[in-house]
Amino acid sequence: MKTEKSSKSSKKIPIQRKTPKIRVLAYGGYVKGEETRQRILDAALKAFGDGSFLAVTTRQISQAAQVSLPTLQYYFGDKEGLYRACAEAIVERIRRNTTGAAAEAANTLKQECTPETARSHLKAVIGALASFLVGSMEAERWAQFVARELRDPGPAFEILYANLWKPGVELTARLIARIMGRPESDPAARVQALMLISSLLVFQSGRKMPLRAMQWTSVGPKELAMILAGLDAQIDAIRG
Amino acid sequence: MKTEKSSKSSKKIPIQRKTPKIRVLAYGGYVKGEETRQRILDAALKAFGDGSFLAVTTRQISQAAQVSLPTLQYYFGDKEGLYRACAEAIVERIRRNTTGAAAEAANTLKQECTPETARSHLKAVIGALASFLVGSMEAERWAQFVARELRDPGPAFEILYANLWKPGVELTARLIARIMGRPESDPAARVQALMLISSLLVFQSGRKMPLRAMQWTSVGPKELAMILAGLDAQIDAIRG
DNA sequence: GTCTATAGTCGGATAGAC
DNA sequence: GTCTATCCGACTATAGAC
Q: Cα distance from A24 to chain B (closest Cα, Å)?
């Protein structure tokens, strides 16, 4: 009743609005609408990266996207629909930027390997994630969106948990289990995985606090190196 | 403009309402008002522990406290005032529950000590904090309040940062620096401190996600033991 | 597809009686 | 001190013209 007050889900027509049919033009050409939709999504991604579902208003988004308010409803149904669309877009984009090291690690896990091989894969995965997260302002916002939604579950929790968090924790946990020489789903390995990931995320989600605590003005290459050093130390500490 | 939209700080009379003078009764007896104030504060603490500043409404709080809406204004001025009062109450209560191990560690830091002494103090401090955090439902809520406010800075950021976070990180960082044989304010030690604290907090702030990831139904003694084991391993890994 | 205008709701805060 | 009644602003969402 607290977080999800937006959906007066009881009555009302259960309209199933999804992407309006705007690509039906002959010759497969996309009509102009697709570009508008994208503009709205980008504006929303930015806004919801900076502020919570409740803090951001649809007015702000429509203004930033330079469309009128009802246009949001036209493309996304309602505020929650737009929010969920953001979550899906983030999942998509993060996936595209992370498959490299993650896929390699997953492949390695399919067969036998030494603990040290697993360890170096884990370092690669975490390193890639860290570099990606500080690489662009957008990635930074995505990280905030995800972290906020997972910590204070809202309309996009399931999407992010199932598509991002769960696979991420699972991969990490399996690598750690391999390092420790324990069974695949060892709880202790899972605990370590959660701790490792959260160690990384402190620096990216909720920037004001870590920046001030470290007396940094921003997270550049030098700062990233320190973070990675800390994470590597943590990974090296994992023992059977 | 996003998060702090509540204070139309520009115009308006800069009323300085503070605790109304309600204790002026002769013979030092407190009038009934003080009890009402406490009831409101407790209800607010509970509500703001579960939901964000924006998600919680003053109406909910007044209802839970069984007073009418204007009574909140009477005692706390406005919603932000009540929120800040909550932050101060939390600081106060956490302090009262953490001074033990923290004070001992601080004392040790004043003089020379071996890295191993520092390490055992660090374990004691982190262990005490962890036990406290899972000890009661209230503590759990306080942790969520603090974590939420630090990650998404709002009206109480400064209070919590200055009185809770800063001293906490500083104590931890100094202990770690001592373990590593580095100067007091070594940045690498600070990074480790932030990571360590966030490793602990991931299990307490935003419960839904870690619970699901671990397939736990709650964090009881058994789960706490696993968390502590992980944290101890992380502390043991700190090396010069 | 996109707009203007507006309906409907809700939340924070105030006035003033008791 | 605490209440009832009310105001006012802000928000989401819809109706309907173009």
A: 38
Mark whether A108 and A221 lie in a shared domain. yes
Q: Report CA(A157)–C1'(D10) in Å, whole number.
A: 27
Short-list A42, A78, A120, A3, CA closest to B206: A3
Judge whether B7 and B62 are in contact, CB under 8 Å.
Answer: no
Identify the residues numbered 144 to 183 in chain B whose C-beta atom is closer than 7 Å to any atom of strand D.
none
* Collapsed DSSP state (helix, strand, coil) of residue A51: coil
Residue where one domain finishes, among candidates B14, B42, B76: B76
Nucleotide D14 C1' to residue A12 CA (A): 13
Q: Residue B55 is nearest to which of A51, A54, A202, comparing CB atoms?
A: A54
Could you tell me if residue B16 is inside a domain?
no
Amino acid at residue number A136: S
Cα gap B62→A57, rounded to integer Å: 26
Whether residues B50 and B96 share a domain: the answer is no
Q: Do B164 and B99 touch, CB atoms closer than 8 A? A: no
**Residue B68, domain CATH:** 1.10.10.60
* Average pLDDT for B80-91: 98
My answer on whether B55 and B173 are in the same domain is no
Digit-coded pLDDT (tens) for A131-184: 999 888 999 999 999 999 999 999 999 999 999 999 999 999 999 999 999 999
Whether the CB-CB separation of B91 and B149 falls below 8 Å is answered with: no
pLDDT computed for residue B28 by the predictor: 45
Q: Which domain holds residue A70?
A: 26-76
Residues A56, A105 within the same domain: no
What is the per-residue pLDDT for B22?
52
| CATH number of residue B156's parent domain | 1.10.357.10
- How many structural domains is chain A composed of? 2
Domain end: B76, B98, B117, which one? B76
Gap from B212 CA to chain A (nearest CA, Å): 9
A69 touches strand D (CB under 7 A): yes
| Alpha-helical regions (H) of A25-165 | 33-50, 58-64, 69-76, 79-110, 115-135, 137-151, 157-160
Confidence of residue A98 (pLDDT cuts 50, 70, 90): confident
3-state secondary structure A161-197: HHHHHHHHHHHHHHHHHHHHCCCCCCHHHHHHHHHHH
Residues 6+ apart with CB under 8 A from B137: none
Please report, for residues A134, A143, A222, B184, B190, the alpha-carbon distance to residue B187 in angstroms, rounded to integers and kept in the order given. 19, 24, 12, 9, 5
Q: What is the pLDDT averaged over residues B213-227?
A: 95
Residue A8 belongs to a domain? no
